[in-house]
């Protein structure tokens, strides 16, 4: 009996490929085209309106000579490192606790995930009130009789970024918990039984068996956290507007201020290009681990 010839690879699922053409075209024109446009104009002295008057690396030299930009990078580094570590640790611990089949698991899961449903502006305003020295935690504790208690991170230049970090963790940790919980639920029950039979302590089971098996979940989580760190803006605007002074500036706010307040498009484009570079630094290793590593394997 003659075998039916299969269509060439190019023509398989043709209707799905045709349906994807508008999305691909939009991505190429809007995202890729916009990215190239931004990079090109970062080498110009565009002010209120873009113009092709090239000035070489002048915008980048001015960018890296700006104290405001350097403070923004320092804040992003502190916020990023702590957010990355604490989000993973807290999210995994909460997921491990919920994975014990506790009572009211759905209720706890909803409570932990609820902050993620709020916008960053709402979260920032809520935590601005909570951390207010007169009406927030400090005011409540002092009203209870502890007059010397001080907790006003948003009003101290040295620790203001940690007040923003608290709000960021409160909102984002629930999502990380859900991703981790999905990964834990994907672990075969026989592995847990074998570990118990062999007498392996629970912490060693997690550290040497479970976590390595959850590598794809961790990589995806890292990319999500890292992308959120690079573009952090709403929380800062809602909580401090970059203050006290410029103590809580971040790169995204620097770009916004340069483009819309200072009307210096060239400087804003230069800052945007540096942010794009930081995103690529995250995405390229992830792409290699996800695709290149599998090929070599």
UniProtKB/TrEMBL annotation:
It is found in: Cell membrane. Its main location: membrane. Residues 73-286 form the ABC transmembrane type-1 domain. It is a multi-pass membrane protein. It comes from the Bacteria. The chain crosses the membrane at residues 21-43, 76-99, 111-130, 159-184, 205-230, 269-289. PROSITE patterns: ABC_TM1 (PS50928). One of its GO terms (biological process) is transmembrane transport. Pfam families: BPD_transp_1 (PF00528). Keywords: Cell membrane, Membrane, Transmembrane, Transmembrane helix, Transport. GO terms for cellular component: plasma membrane. Belongs to the binding-protein-dependent transport system permease family. This is Sugar ABC transporter permease. The lineage of its organism: Bacteria, Pseudomonadati, Pseudomonadota, Alphaproteobacteria, Hyphomicrobiales.
